[in-house]
């Protein structure tokens, strides 16, 4: 029988503590040899707890730059906003300068423009069109989407831009998402997958025949997996 390329965590809180500790260690290691640490954040419920835990850690926030791997097409104060989620969980509780926080400039009526502006902001920060984040945090949905690369959507085949808007038919709504080339250039890519709803998707992603259009998460080659036993089934 094929085996997963990782050891699952028995309990969700243990996994969340492990991500938090690993994040702090990576920041320390990285900042020993460079000035800033850049991270692309994930939405979702599991990372939210990690952000809350990071809020009470002693981190050099003036040297950490936060970007968003995906966003919903809603104003920043909307309940569905990934920016708002991170603000409530983390930003409101730590001394981080506005210049270090890079939310997606959501443009509800013209998401393509908002996405282009973000791609430019990313380029301005990294000095190249394709970013090399020190860390990319990702989750996976029960339909095998990651970031806002949903099955059957056009962003899956984007090979030029780092960040695009993406119409998602099942929500009849636009999302914003980092693209494969931007994600896979990350120096560290951590895939956080938890909960019983993910069992079938995870199996298909790891063991199924390659079909990015159906299982977008197959396009991610994580440097670390953080998976709980429920997601393994
Ligand atoms: C989002 C995400 C998305 C998320 C998965 C998993 O904004 O919705 O970035 O890709 O990571 O849907 O979410 P959970 O951790 O809540 O299962």
Automatic annotation (TrEMBL):
Tell me, in a sentence or two, what this protein's role is.
Hydrolysis of 6-phosphogluconolactone to 6-phosphogluconate.
State the Gene Ontology terms under molecular function. Answer: 6-phosphogluconolactonase activity
Hydrolase listed as a keyword: yes
Gene that encodes the chain: pgl
Which Gene3D superfamilies does the annotation name? Answer: 3.40.50.1360
Boundaries of every Glucosamine/galactosamine-6-phosphate isomerase domain copy = 15-223
Provide the E.C. number(s) assigned to this enzyme.
3.1.1.31
What this protein catalyses is: 6-phospho-D-glucono-1,5-lactone + H2O = 6-phospho-D-gluconate + H(+)
* Family per similarity comment: Belongs to the glucosamine/galactosamine-6-phosphate isomerase family. 6-phosphogluconolactonase subfamily.
Q: Report the protein name in the record.
A: 6-phosphogluconolactonase
According to its UniProt entry, this protein's organism is: Roseiconus lacunae
């Amino acid at each position: 029988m094929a085996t997963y390329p990782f050891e699952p965590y028995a309990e969700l809180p243990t996994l969340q503590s492990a991500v938090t500790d690993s994040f702090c260690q990576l920041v320390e290691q990285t900042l020993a040899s460079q000035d800033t640490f850049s991270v692309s954040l994930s939405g979702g419920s599991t990372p939210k707890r990690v952000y809350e835990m990071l809020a009470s850690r002693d981190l050099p926030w003036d040297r950490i730059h936060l970007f968003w791997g995906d966003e919903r097409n809603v104003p920043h104060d909307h309940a569905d906003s990934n920016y708002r989620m991170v603000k409530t969980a983390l930003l409101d509780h730590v001394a981080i300068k506005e210049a270090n926080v890079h939310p997606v400039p959501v443009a509800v009526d013209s998401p393509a423009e908002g996405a282009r502006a973000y791609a430019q902001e990313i380029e301005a920060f990294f000095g190249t069109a394709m970013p090399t984040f020190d860390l990319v945090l990702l989750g996976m949905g029960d339909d095998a989407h990651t970031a806002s690369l949903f099955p059957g959507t056009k962003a899956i085949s984007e090979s030029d831009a780092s960040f695009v808007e993406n119409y998602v038919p099942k929500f009849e709504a636009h999302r914003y998402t980092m693209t494969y080339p931007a994600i896979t250039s990350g120096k560290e890519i951590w895939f956080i997958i938890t909960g019983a709803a993910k069992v079938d998707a995870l199996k298909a992603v790891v063991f199924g025949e390659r079909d990015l259009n159906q299982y977008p998460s197959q396009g991610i080659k994580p440097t670390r997996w953080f998976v709980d036993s429920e997601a393994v089934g």
